[in-house]
């Protein structure tokens, strides 16, 4: 494995990071691989980001790879030296590789991670009707990949509480991607969830126990999948309400796992064997299992 002879540091930047299971997952992988590396959480305030990246470029810096989460997936675009083609199309980065000469290469493993989990759930996207809540970095990755794949859905409706945010997202993406199947709506009711095959929550609504559910219970039906990117807590109010209506549900733990495997493969420049992947899955699954 092409990781350093001395202890290399990897980590995640974002705010907040208290709920993140990425350190558990990647440290389990490092242990299994027998490499002298550690994965840390770097909670950053907006004012700290520029200084953090300035230090990251220094030759003596021991950080060789990063994950990026809310709210910095789009912010970091200005700090990377190059973007992988998919990250460039999406316009968001959740994985950064730091090369030997301290160049920063941005990747997006959220999008393929999401698709990999849908495949595991045996959900076929072809001609399906999709509804998306939210317009942040994760929504951007999911919306983009759903429009880029050959087996794309029949339609996608997207809602965000701040409509200007979703308008900006669409305006930016449509310069690089065919968004003809996408429609923005001004009210949750206009998502037509009662007719949807897949509802995806990309918002942070549900992270806190007191958070309300954005969707009325009557919208859920048994012939749909409700997918919440939140994985900690493992069952949000959205998923609980959907399950009570006989709906198939999934949290975002699978997406976290698949994007994490892809991130580590980018950092190490190798394919991980099943043994390492199993340790990564066990580490996060144990923490969230009830």
Describe the protein's architecture and organization.
The structure is a single chain. With 290 residues, the protein is an alpha/beta fold. The chain has two domains: 8-108 and 254-288, Rossmann fold (3-Layer(aba) Sandwich), CATH 3.40.50; 111-251, NAD(P)-binding Rossmann-like Domain (Rossmann fold, 3-Layer(aba) Sandwich). Helices cover 34% and strands 19% of the residues. It has a six-stranded mixed sheet. Helix 1 runs antiparallel to helix 9 (274-288). 40% of the residues are buried. The mean pLDDT is 96.
Summarize, please.
The chain has 290 residues and is of the alpha/beta class.
What is the chain-wise order of helices and strands? EHEHEEHEEHEHEHEEEHEHH
Q: Using only CA atoms, what is the Rg?
A: 19 Å
The count of domains is 2
Low-confidence stretches: none
Main sheet: strands, sense, barrel: 6 strands, mixed
The CATH superfamily of the largest domain is NAD(P)-binding Rossmann-like Domain
Name the descriptors.
34% helix, single chain, 6-stranded parallel β-sheet, alpha/beta, 12 strands, 290 residues, Rossmann fold
């Amino acid at each position: 494995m092409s990781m350093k002879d001395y202890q290399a540091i990897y980590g995640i930047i974002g705010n907040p990071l208290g709920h993140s299971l990425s350190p558990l997952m990647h440290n389990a992988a490092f242990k299994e691989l027998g490499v002298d590396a550690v994965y840390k959480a770097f909670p950053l305030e907006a004012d700290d980001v520029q200084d953090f990246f300035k230090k990251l470029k220094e030759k003596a810096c021991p950080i060789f790879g990063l994950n990026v989460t809310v709210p910095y997936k789009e912010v970091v675009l200005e700090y990377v030296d190059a973007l992988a083609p998919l990250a460039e199309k999406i316009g968001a980065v959740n994985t950064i590789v730091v090369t030997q000469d301290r160049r920063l290469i941005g990747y997006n493993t959220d999008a393929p991670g999401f698709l990999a989990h849908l495949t595991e759930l045996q959900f076929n996207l072809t001609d399906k009707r999709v509804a998306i809540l939210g317009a942040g970095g994760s929504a951007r990755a999911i919306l983009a990949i759903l429009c880029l794949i050959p087996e794309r859905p029949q339609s996608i409706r997207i809602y965000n509480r701040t409509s200007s945010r979703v308008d900006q997202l669409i305006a930016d993406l449509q310069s690089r991607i065919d968004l003809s199947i996408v429609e923005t709506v001004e009210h949750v009711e206009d998502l037509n969830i009662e007719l949807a095959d897949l509802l995806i929550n990309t918002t942070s609504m549900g992270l806190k126990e007191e958070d309300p559910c954005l969707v009325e219970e009557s919208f859920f039906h048994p012939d749909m999948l409700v997918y919440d990117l939140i994985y900690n807590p493992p069952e949000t109010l959205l998923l609980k309400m959907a399950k009570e209506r006989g709906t198939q549900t999934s949290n975002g733990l699978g997406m976290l796992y698949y994007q994490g495997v892809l991130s580590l493969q980018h950092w190490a420049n190798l394919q991980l064997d099943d043994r390492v992947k199993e340790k990564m899955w066990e580490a996060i699954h144990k923490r969230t299992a009830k």
